[in-house]
Specification:
Blueprint: H1 4-12, H2 15-24, E1 31-33, E2 38-40, E3 46-53, E4 66-71, E5 74-77, E6 79-80, E7 87-93, E8 100-112, E9 118-124, E10 128-133, E11 136-140, E12 144-146, E13 150-156, E14 163-166, E15 169-170, E16 172-177, E17 180-184, E18 192-199, E19 204-213, E20 218-220, E21 224-227, E22 231-237, E23 247-249, E24 251-253, E25 259-260, E26 264-266, E27 272-279, E28 283-292, E29 295-304
Parallel strand pairs: 2-10, 12-19, 21-29
Antiparallel strand pairs: 1-3, 3-7, 4-5, 4-8, 6-7, 8-9, 8-10, 11-13, 13-17, 14-15, 14-18, 16-17, 18-19, 20-22, 22-27, 23-26, 24-28, 25-27, 28-29
Length: 305
C-alpha cells in the first residue's frame, strides 16, 4: 500500500496537479536528503549518505521502519543514527575514479489505522546525485585585511596554474602545495567585501568572502629629484606590523625608463621598509602607491641628465 496522501492525489488528479494537492494538504515528502551535493574526495573512498525519514503515521508499528539506499538497482540497508531524530546513515564505498554518485532512497513502514487495521506504506526519493571532487576549498586563513596582505587558502587539488582574483581583480598568487595557496590582496577599494575566486583553465570556484580594510602609508621623502645613475632611498611606513608573508605595496610608475627600483615588500614583523631608487633616463613623472589612504599615494619623481 502506498502513502495515503499520495494515493488520494493520484486517484483524483493527473500527476502534475497531484504534487500541488499534496503540498496544499500538508502532505510533504517524509524523506529529506541530508547529503551534500558535493563530496570532498578522500583516500578511503567512503562517503556518508544521510537521510531524514519521518513517516506520515499517527500510530507507527514499532520496529517496522526499513530504509534502503539504492545504487545501481542494489538496495543497501541504512542504519538509524544516534545523532538526530529519524536520521539514517550509510557509509558507501565508491569505485576508484568515480566522480558522481547517483542514488535514491526507498523507505517503508507499517502503521495501525483508527479501525485497528495494519497497513504497509512505501516512500521513495527522486534520483539524487552527489559529485565527488578532488579539488575543493576548505577555508580562507582569515576573512579580512588591508591591501597587500598575504592571505592563505586551505583546500585540496590546487595546481601551479591556479589564479586568485577578487571579483575579477587579479591577485598575485603563490602556489604552496596541492593543499595550500596564498595570494596578496590586490589594490581594490577598501571598506567592502569581495568574493575570492580561484580559476584555472577548467573551472572557477569561490573560496569565500574577504573584507578589505582601509589603511594608510607614509612615504619619505615625499618627492624625489635624481640625476641619471644616482641612487636615493625611499622609506614606506604602515601603521600596523606586517603579518606572515609580508605586506606587498603595489607601487607603479608612469616613467618606467626613468625610475629603477625593486618591488616594495614590508617584511613580516616590521612596519616599514626602505628601498633604493636609481635614476634612469632623464624625465619626470610619478610613483603611485595603489589602495591606500583615499585611494592612491603619489610621489613626484624627476630625473635630470
Amino acid at each position: 500500500m502506498q502513502n495515503n496522501c499520495r494515493l488520494l492525489a493520484r486517484r483524483i488528479l493527473p500527476a502534475a496537479a497531484a504534487l500541488g494537492l499534496m503540498f496544499a494538504a500538508g502532505c510533504a515528502s517524509p524523506l529529506a536528503n541530508l547529503t551534500p551535493s558535493a563530496l570532498p574526495a578522500n583516500p578511503s573512498q567512503l562517503y556518508t549518505i544521510s537521510i531524514r525519514y519521518t513517516p506520515n503515521a499517527a500510530q507507527l508499528v514499532p520496529g517496522s521502519v526499513v530504509v534502503n539506499l539504492v545504487i545501481d538497482q542494489q538496495p543497501h540497508p541504512m542504519k538509524k543514527s544516534a545523532i538526530g531524530t529519524d536520521i539514517y546513515l550509510l557509509d558507501y564505498q565508491v569505485p576508484a575514479g568515480a566522480t558522481d554518485l547517483a542514488y535514491y532512497v526507498l523507505a517503508s513502514y507499517d502503521s495501525v489505522s483508527s479501525r485497528g487495521k495494519v497497513g504497509h506504506h512505501d516512500d521513495r526519493t527522486e534520483l539524487l546525485h552527489s559529485k565527488i571532487s578532488g579539488r575543493y576549498v576548505l577555508s580562507l586563513a582569515t576573512n579580512r585585511g588591508p591591501v597587500g596582505a598575504r592571505i592563505g587558502i586551505v583546500g585540496a587539488g590546487f595546481t601551479a596554474q591556479d589564479k586568485v582574483s577578487l571579483e575579477g581583480t587579479p591577485a598575485r598568487t603563490v602556489f604552496e602545495s596541492p593543499n595550500a595557496l596564498g595570494f596578496y590582496v590586490p589594490a581594490v577599494a577598501a571598506g567592502r567585501s569581495y568574493k575570492v575566486q580561484i580559476s584555472n583553465a577548467a573551472a572557477t570556484v569561490v573560496a569565500g568572502t574577504f573584507g578589505v580594510d582601509a589603511s594608510n602609508v607614509t612615504v619619505s621623502p615625499d618627492s624625489l629629484r635624481l640625476r641619471a645613475g644616482e641612487t636615493q632611498t625611499l622609506t614606506f611606513t604602515v601603521p600596523t606590523t606586517a603579518t606572515a608573508g609580508g605586506l606587498l605595496l603595489d607601487v607603479t610608475t608612469d616613467v618606467p625608463d626613468s625610475v629603477i627600483m625593486p618591488e616594495v615588500m614590508v617584511p613580516a614583523g616590521y612596519t616599514s621598509v626602505t628601498v633604493n631608487v636609481t635614476g634612469g633616463r632623464p624625465g619626470s613623472g610619478t610613483l603611485t602607491l595603489h589602495g591606500y589612504g583615499t585611494g592612491d599615494v603619489i610621489v613626484p619623481v624627476t630625473v635630470t641628465p
